[in-house]
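Quarterly update, task 2.4: calcium ion-bound model.
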Amino acid sequence: MFADDDPRLSHLLEGIVRLASGDLSSRIEVSDARDELDAIIMGTNLLAEDLQIIYEELEQRVQVRTQLLHEAHLEMQKMAMQDPLTGLANRSALIEALRTALDAGSATGEGPAILLMDLDAFKSINDSMGHTAGDQVLITVGERIRSAVRSTTDVVARLGGDEFAIVMPEASPDQAVIVGHRILAALKRPIEIPGRSVRCGASMGLSVGSAGQAPEDMLMEADVAMYASKAEGQNRLHRFEPALLLMRRLRSQLVDDLRAAIKTDGLMLHYQPVVELATGRIEGVEALVRWNHPTRGFIMPDEFIPLAEEAGLISELGLWVLRAAVHQLRDWIDDSLVDSRFSVRINISATDLQSLQFIEDVRNVLKETGVRPEQVVLELTEVAIVKGNELDRYSLGGLRGLGVGIEIDDFGTGYSSISYLRRLPVDRVKVDRSLISGLGTDPGQPELVAAVLQLVRACGLEAVWEGVETAEQAEILRGLGCLSAQGYYFSRPVPPEQIPLLLADRAESANP
Ligand code: C2E
Ligand code: CA
Ligand code: CA
């Protein structure tokens, strides 16, 4: 037994207090007595030992967990800053990089440079070859950009879609231009995707930052410069200058005006006769849209059709043209100016072809006017048809099902293979004027025209020849057996009021 005042009792008590307060490594001293009290002390020490082991194990586990959580968090942060498709930085990361570079300032006093680029032909690649091919193109473009820049300092980002950007914290404007051209050159090489090889140019804008400038502001400047490049054609690089801002404002004003013009009949159609070569009879007309701008005067389609395409107004414009032209034909029929063989040709954009709504629009306007479908011919460019996807072919079939004529416009400028041409639901081609421009001057040209005619007919189609400017050209074409033609020689495109006069004149010369 042990006494009440045994000092080991208070040792035991203190020891338990130490353990309870978390000091699991402390042990209580055991005496030589080896009595009951010592047994309790030893038991307590053993418990402390177990506790310590359990505690250490737990602590280790918590540490591992914390580390894993930390890594996952970093990964998430990285992913939030990364474009998942290409592994490049994303927009937020780019803005951050730009902000850091702007804050740091460069040794030369010149701000960081940013190149913004947009692929020129990506949409049509994606539409015609599918998204997997499109993704492959984007990945390859990303790799090519990466290998054209300085990997230690420059940040390459994909901003979404087919837009890429490069931040160069330490490049002078001249160096940035060189890098830009190096990237453009790298993109000129064809990109290999399974079973195909494609080319995809790009347009670039450069902005050089200045102290205190906001990253978003630099990005906007690069964007403005990029649009200037795009407007000039493929594979260009423009540096931002304030005058471009003004141009952009004018352009967006023009887009607003065009939108209003479509809504308020500010557009008008001119009509150019298509003539039967053997008789001189006007067999139909082509509707060509014009814009009578309130302050700028007459604007030609080559100028505003691309604008309408870019601004997403082309479908509205196409619908306006379709309705105006078919209603005009209805009026001419009602006035007994034309018979049932007379047709109106209408130019259709590639976008129209892609919309199923357009088939409905054609159906509706035919129903509304009671015009026979054979009297309406839709002109589609070779490029729109050949580059088109399955949906386009479906739409083409749908249009054909309505009974309207379909003609390939600008034939000879695209890439149609002849075997392909045979399978398309079209009845006619309109041969581009470049093919006959040498008629009358180039002695070899008639032979070429004869060959093209033979080829077209071998495909079971007929040809209309456009761009006839002289009597000689008309005569050569007639002599070669060509049936129909169109061009300034017969008549320029004229307002609809002049068509009755032309019809009367031609009727006279056709039956003298
Ligand atoms: P396109 O369909 O090839 O139309 C023929 C163009 O050649 C017309 O120019 C016409 O005025 C011009 N042309 C006619 N005969 C001759 C000639 O003998 N010599 C020369 N050098 N040119 C001739 P325009 O009216 O300026 O139209 C240009 C293009 O704009 C058209 O080319 C067509 O692609 C597009 N376009 C015109 N109207 C429309 C429309 O309503 N919708 C759509 N989507 N595009 C249209
Ligand atoms: Ca045309
Ligand atoms: Ca044409």
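Highlight for this quarter: The pocket of C2E (ligand 1) is lined by residues 272, 288-289, 300-302, 305, 318, 321, 347, 349, 409-410, 433, 467-469, 487-488, 493 (CB under 6 Å).
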